[in-house]
């Protein structure tokens, strides 16, 4: 006879993963936990050695009845720090690869600061300030660097098809198509659309890039479609056939088989800073804040532009001089090229660039536009015969645009903003696209870090409109940092 051991009533039952998504998420979370522990132990240990030296273990100055030495303080600090990270949800699968991960890291560390301050006040603890001044900042930097490395690793794995989230999209034809296109534009997010359910009769598939997403059912056969496609996430967008009761029952049934449910509100290009979640009469609602046109024209943005441009010109002056000499000695003509661009409120200004073309380049533009099919609104050639040998190099790494810092100092441009527009583009604008001209054009922007010249005209316009409506200083700083990486890699520039 074979006997199976009984589990104790209070034993922790480990539930096996129900999908491939849960499997890799658990493994990823485990490595994050190990990495956090290593960073915290290192930070606390380094602080202990640097502050007290070697094997010294002085007592904590306190009014406690028992003597507590700093070895115990270090152990407790590390333990509470780990608890704070777990309590703040810094390793939640929902924020893997999201900027929210960094915000929660900072929040957990600030919570630890607060707990130390409260305990010091209540128990009259005199914790060495130098010890804390080393441990907490060093730990925060280490945790952030570790998470950045893991995010970079996860993104690379997702780009080759690993660590993905298999998504079944449910909704009307237009709404589902928009969602699928959004997922395809961001392969690093890991959302891999494997099928679509729509009430539109007769639709067999939707072409997205070089793929065709098959229609595997309607919005009443989601469970069968999940089993057929082996999806581990269902994303529902606008559809008239599903009511509140249908959503509730679907969530119950999907949970039983380990499938997540995502509901997209259908909002496009709205930043998270403009969204506020509210619960009204048991209904979740999103309040959308007003577009940030005025903030994008604020004095603090102008001050940032001037300070950043002055610093850049000062630090890059040797590079500017070297490029100027290279342009002058390799081809005839002036060093700088002044090109008319349309600035804020439709005012034209001369944009300064290093000359990267031959002096008679403008005389050939009409013929080249005709050869490209006559698209005068967004004319850009990858192998432009008018570009000089030196011009190809400085264009690839956007060095020809460095003189635009002088446009920033003159108040005509901003460091970050919409792409500078030529007159033929502006003349074709409708009321929507004109909003791009509500702020100054920028040296860099969302268009610069999202593909640059590889972008389609529609994508470029949408990115500019998104920047104008969702501006924040944090966004500007993020785009400046991301631009440096895009420029060094020479991505999408010609």
From TrEMBL:
InterPro entries: Bact_transf, EPS_sugar_tfrase
The keyword Transmembrane is assigned to this record: yes
Residues passing through the membrane, by range: 31-50, 70-90, 102-125, 131-150, 302-327
Major subcellular site: membrane
Gene3D superfamilies the UniProt entry points to: NAD(P)-binding Rossmann-like Domain (3.40.50.720)
UniProtKB keywords: Membrane, Transferase, Transmembrane, Transmembrane helix
Pfam families found in the cross-reference section: Bac_transf (PF02397), CoA_binding_3 (PF13727)
Annotated localization: Membrane
GO cellular component: membrane
Enzyme superclass (EC): transferase
Family, similarity comment: Belongs to the bacterial sugar transferase family.
The protein's name in its UniProt record: UDP-glucose:undecaprenyl-phosphate glucose-1-phosphate transferase
Organism, as annotated: Nocardia aurantia
